[in-house]
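Tutorial handout. Part one gives the primary structure; part two gives the three-dimensional structure as tokens.
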Amino acid sequence: MIKEEYIVDLEYTNDKEPLRIDKYLAIVCEDLSRSEIKDYFDLSLIKVNNKVVKPSFKVKNEDIIMVESKPEEVIDIIGEKIDIPIIYEDDDVIVVNKPSGMVVHPAPGHTHGTLVNAILYHHQNLSNLGGDVRAGIVHRIDKDTSGLLVVCKNNFAHKDLSTQLKNKTTKRLYLAIVCGNISHNLGKINAPIGRDPNNRQKMAVVEGGKPAVTHFKVIDRFHDFTLVELQLETGRTHQIRVHMSYIGHPVLNDPLYGTKKQTTPFGQYLHAKTLGFLQPTTKEWLEFSVEPPQDFIDKINELKNEH
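Part two.
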């Protein structure tokens, strides 16, 4: 099964001569770190023009690189009795209000206590298009981001919602407290996002990255901070956090894209407030909104009082 396929374009990497494939993939594979790319080579999962190659192989324009799926690490996925607020449920989907601090699905280092573990205790049969580890998960929000997420009970719903997300017909609104005072009331950030070439653990605005568009509206201003509502037009990894940092207004308390000094142990002040989509079977428009967690509200009130 092919994970990704790339047609080599050396202009993208600013190279005119053939380039080592490991170096090329480090630039174009935004979802893989250098050590992960090495693992793929060690497992003979990277081919050029249908032939397995070594990291030193030099690619040229129009070569076709195929990165095959790595065998999924076996993790015992079990339902766990974890309290998770369910906002809506029908035969196809479950809409939940994920708390800040909860990982969405199991992974090495986070095999228990995730949203998937909680949902499997509530409903054992979920879609499996993303594999057992990501049972039911069609889109994700970061561990320390709170708010709305839709989980699919069957593959039909999973495919339908994946298409809606790809076609940008869903509605996703976020609330964030960002650093600094944004002077204008409305803004649109249109800047491509890819793997940070200087830190593979981060994403960044980079030339040749995947298109990413974020709209924002100022809700309130404080002395050194701004409360904003954001709407995603695309859904790149860490998109809001990267875009707001890019324009000089990182999300408050963001440990990866903001200042290193954390004001509270809460995590970044980012909340998935509104989620809207077409019900996969009935095609009825469903839209849900939830208030941010109490810690988030308390921070807003604290900033208002200081202001």
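Part three, for discussion. The chain has three domains: 2-68, 73-167, 173-272+296-306. The first strand starts at residue 2 and ends at 7.
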